[in-house]
Amino acid sequence: MGNIALFFPLGIMLPLVHDKFSSIWKVLILAMLVSSGIELLQLVSRGFGSYRSVDIDDVLLNTFGACVGCVGFAIVRRYASANDTS
Known about the structure:
Layout: H1 2-17, H2 24-46, H3 56-82
C-alpha cells in the first residue's frame, strides 16, 4: 500500500500542472520512468553499501498508484464540471 500511496499524488498533480499529461497513458509512462529511475538508483547505491532492495513489484505498484490518482482526478474533474452551474 505504501508504494501506491506514494505515487498517488503524482497521478493527480501531473494533469493539474500541464495539459500534456491529461492522458492516462502519458501519466503511466512518466510514472514508470520515474519509478524505474528510483529502482536503478537503489541498485547502484547497493554498490556503495546501501541496504535498499530492488524489486520490479515496486515499479508496478508505483505506476499503478499514479494511474489510480490520475483516474480519480479525472472522475472528480468530470463530476465537478458536470455540476458546475455558473
